[in-house]
Amino acid sequence: xxxxxxxxxxxxxxxxxxxxxxxxxxxxxxxxxxxxxxxxxxxxxxxxxxxxxxxxxxxxxxxxxxxxxxxxxxxxxxxxxxxxxxxxxxxxxxxxxxxxxxxxxxxxxxxxxxxxxxxxxxxxxxxxxxxxxxxxxxxxxxxxxxxxxxxxxxxxxxxxxxxxxxxxxxxxxxxxxxxxxxxxxxxxxxxxxxxxxxxxxxxxxxxxxxxxxxxxxxxxxxxxxxxxxxxxxxxxxxxxxxxxxxxxxxxxxxxxxxxxxxxxxxxxxxxxxxxxxxxxxxxxxxxxxxxxxxxxxxxxxxxxxxxxxxxxxxxxxxxxxxxxxxxxxxxxxxxxxxxxxxxxxxxxxxxxxxxxxxxxxxxxxxxxxxxxxxxxxxxxxxxxxxxxxxxxxxxxxxxxxxxxxxxxxxxxxxxxxxxxxxxxxxxxxxxxxxxxxxxxxxxxxxxxxxxxxxxxxxxxxxxxxxxxxxxxxxxxxxxxxxxxxxxxxxxxxxxxxxxxxxxxxxxxxxxxxxxxxxxxxxxxxxxxxxxxxxxxxxxxxxxxxxxxxxxxxxxxxxxxxxxxxxxxxxxxxxxxxxxxxxxxxxxxxxxxxxxxxxx
Length: 599
Fold this sequence. Notes:
The chain is α+β, with helices and mostly antiparallel strands. 26% of the residues lie in helices and 21% in strands. The chain has 16 helices and 24 strands. The strands form 8 sheets. A 6-stranded mixed sheet has the order 12-21-13-18-16-17, sandwiched between helices. Strands 2-11-10-9 form a 4-stranded mixed sheet, with helices on one face. A 4-stranded antiparallel sheet has the order 5-6-8-7, with helices on one face. It starts with 7 loop residues before the first helix and ends with a strand.
């Protein structure tokens, strides 16, 4: 069987979101879509927690010290070597024509766009007209123009395999890009309707960096490249673990409050000390807490060097220490990342859709969310959608589509009977015993796994937890199908129709006839679900598009593909006198607003 590997960037994104981020035959008959269920009593977790910046109350000047995992090898987020830190820096240096608001809605960024509009639904072909901000210029004083969009489309469309790109959705739908009535107007014509067009050209790179495969594939690092953000690179020291950005002297928007920002490579295990010693102002703490390990015990020289495992007790100690640091506020929120229990539909006994549905109903999502999130001080609302985060526009709890809540009856009907006196269910002499794959070293995953194990045992389902390190979790387990149940997260994108489709697309046979799951690691899917995603991607009416996504989510529930559990937690430590920083949720920092409060 050929295994399609994730690119480095995609794998890193999935595993960074992994905490505690198939049936080839006919699909089972589907009941009508249920009515929306009432909102849960739990408070909806906020996706983001930022101390807002009133620019008039922010000091001018100074240097912010900001922790990152490492100096990224590239600032081109479309290259396979890109990381989350690549994206963070890119948003300080490059344009994005649209940016997400607090509910995941993409809105024009006036620093780069004077306006943008698409032809109305039903009018063919679809044409999007952009009016670029006439003041927006690259660092060589060249204005942003149609040439930049044309070059980026050529690099990301997938038409030329010489470009080493991840080919994000949407660029392949573009037929042509032309200058409009003047140099500031750009017209993008689509060969097929593409509803999520605001997600394109963010970040946007200069034509000089994307106009040829050689230019595009070259590592985009250091200060010798064009930029057009509120900051420019003044120092790029991979060996020393520092990237310094300074105010862009050509910046046409609100003047950045900080003179410069030092992005410092500080390992998670050193960040609490760095905050305590006033060597950092902003530090992501999710991994600090989630992967906290006991202090190493004294061992004999002959003892094997086995790294200690993260534990919920150590995570609690790390969180208490973070909360007690003087001059530091711990911002916390539910991240735009959907943690789910994925069921491997091609591994017995989960090949039976009836068993998958019964198992899904046996999962107490409220109990699981409480175990995972309450220790971190985050609202433990269970997630009811495969596609949207709890405070994302259009979110609806579709869990009722999974069938009756009586899991015991569903398990009995699927042939799995509980012995007299209780215990593990049995069918045809085999016990209902499953493995649960979780990422190694994650305290949140362990809390989740422990709660799931106890929860499913109540229904007569035995679960044994198996851990895998980050570098093998995807390629050796998810991609090969070496698991029964798996716990991991997918990002909740601002363009769910196109971004989520590959996760649920029906696996297709390779040329040699073996099943290629792509990134649908559950390996279950239907033609109907694929069509719903395709229709949503092409539906220009927002209300109609959301209806199609809701219907797709209902069908995914009815398929027994996976069980949404909760939104992944996110923690960031910020100096109490720093404003405009915290957990940014769907978006990214507005770098020109981050600074120190006035005395």
